[in-house]
Amino acid sequence: xxxxxxxxxxxxxxxxxxxxxxxxxxxxxxxxxxxxxxxxxxxxxxxxxxxxxxxxxxxxxxxxxxxxxxxxxxxxxxxx
Amino acid sequence: xxxxxxxxxxxxxxxxxxxxxxxxxxxxxxxxxxxxxxxxxxxxxxxxxxxxxxxxxxxxxxxxxxxxxxxxxxxxxxxxxxxxxxxxxxxxxxxxxxxxxxxxxxxxxxxxxxxxxxxxxxxxxxxxxxxxxxxxxxxxxxxxxxxxxxxxxxxxxxxxxxxxxxxxxxxxxxxxxxxxxxxxxxxxxxxxxxxxxxxxxxxxxxxxxxxxxxxxxxxxxxxxxxxxxxxxxxxxxxxxxxxxxxxxxxxxxxxxxxxxxxxxxxxxxxxxxxxxxxxxxxxxxxxxxxxxxxxxxxxxxxxxxxxxxxxxxxxxxxxxxxxxxxxxxxxxxxxxxxxxxxxxxxxxxxxxxxxxxxxxxxxxxxxxxxxxxxxxxxxxxxxxxxxxxxxxxxxxxxxxxxxxxxxxxxxxxxxxxxxxxxxxxxxxxxxxxxxxxxxxxxxxxxxxxxxxxxxxxxxxxxxxxxxxxxxxxxxxxxxxxxxxxxxxxxxxxxxxxxxxxxxxxxxxxxxxxxxxxxxxxxxxxxxxxxxxxxxxxxxxxxxxxxxxxxxxxxxxx
Lengths: 80, 557
Fold this sequence. Notes:
The complex is a heterodimer of chains A (about 80) and B (about 550).
Chain A: E1 3-6, H1 16-20, E2 26-28, E3 34-36, H2 47-51, E4 57-59
Antiparallel strand pairs in A: 1-4, 2-3
Chain B: E1 5-15, H1 19-28, E2 35-38, E3 55-57, H2 65-75, H3 82-102, E4 116-117, E5 127-129, H4 133-146, E6 150-152, E7 155-163, E8 166-174, E9 180-190, H5 209-216, E10 221-222, E11 229-233, H6 243-248, E12 252-254, H7 266-269, H8 281-293, E13 299-302, H9 308-317, H10 319-327, E14 337-343, E15 351-352, E16 365-367, H11 381-401, H12 410-421, E17 429-430, H13 431-446, E18 449-450, H14 452-469, E19 473-474, H15 478-503, E20 512-513, E21 526-533, E22 536-543
Parallel strand pairs in B: 1-2, 1-9, 2-6, 9-16, 17-19, 18-20
Antiparallel strand pairs in B: 3-5, 4-5, 7-8, 8-9, 10-15, 10-21, 11-14, 12-13, 13-14, 21-22
Helix pairs in contact in B: 1-4, 1-11, 2-3, 3-11, 5-15, 9-10, 13-14, 13-15, 14-15
């Protein structure tokens, strides 16, 4: 899944990513730093990485070919 | 459960903090009114506005307004409201200066001239570009906050509040604390964006919450059959497609043999060959599907023939996507970039029917942006969101300035509160499974190429889902509770898509029917309107007014 990691040694605990994630993946942990409470909801929008001042978040790009949302009737095996 | 309750009173309530909602807030705060804006996430980092390809309608003094209107009508196959489209085109020009004064920069060439490009479906009209939805939204949020808009984050509105046939506010809950919010307002603007089933291109929190709430409150929806598809980079997707910019700069679509293919399919839609690959989204989606069926997939975006200055302009217009490709070792001057079809690429769906002042069929309720029924296809969703945001603000404020008494229906508020929290009390259907079921109905059963029997099956399935599955939905926590309500909204809207699609017996725009493959300009120059009455959907048609451009004047093939 796209959400990879918060690099704690880089994170300064500013909380911006927790504040701005559109799908509420991130919450504050007991150390005050963010953790992925709902990693399965990450959709690779990259908002957190853009706003992170410390480059402390790792996300991968979304691979559309692997989603179950491509219409299988219309797109045959050649597309995936 | 003893959760805190927040009772809020305001003049103008704006649901949704994307560009439409925030622009409406900016406009509304020009007058001495209190404005509360509510969003499921963080306004300024929420919604589709952030992923715009960076194009906005470029109409300016000296251009022919009619050229822009004809391009728009051809691109959406005559489904647009002509007067609204004209007002959107002109309105955007009026907003450009103030946006620039706030700090938004249009992409310019080396001589400082704003670069204009013909976008999708455009033969004689132009887009201009800004580099990045994030900067756009930083600026717009900043302006809304600076003017004193009260912003409430992380609140999912589940229902509109009504009394005596008028909308008097909205209710919902905080998706982290779970606290109940009941907001009374003299005017309510739905600006909650487009709808998808949490799998397509739009942000997965765009689940048509405001449109579904309006449907349940008796509002008319229109053009719902045009649930749309688009394309995106197959392996390097960051939520933006870049297709408006790439195709606008002259990129081609090629199949695995390196052949261009869109021209083979233009006839089916009657679109002039002059458009090249820069077609309305329904045509390139259909073309990709046909190439895939013929065994010619996958397909690619090809920029290799573009001159250096066009490549530079592309880089400036879609910087993050381009950077991702560079990081992956792709050089668009030399390499093909694989693309694929993605559900709900954009904003071409219908939604809440609005008049020329963003008013809906329910007094007290206004609508702006993608939540409204607005084809504005040639003009693009971002442009429409900005201008309709202005209309909604003006109308909402006008209503506020008239003396009136707004009261809530206590019983209704109580019932909504109970409904909000009930999935926490038990149930057997997990939200993940529920979402998967509605995705299957929308993406597979309705899909791109539709047909009566499959649509009837989709309607039966979604009705069975709403009747039997939804009452059993359970939520593990407040975050999950939001999903439970999102699924209910998605299901409500899927039903309108399938029913409207079955009703429209022709192929037009995204209503691509195998069983009615031709566009029928004799019998179907109509809008399909749908509303809920007593639990059932009522469908009707309205003749499309041709006051400014008649169908015979469109340069179809």
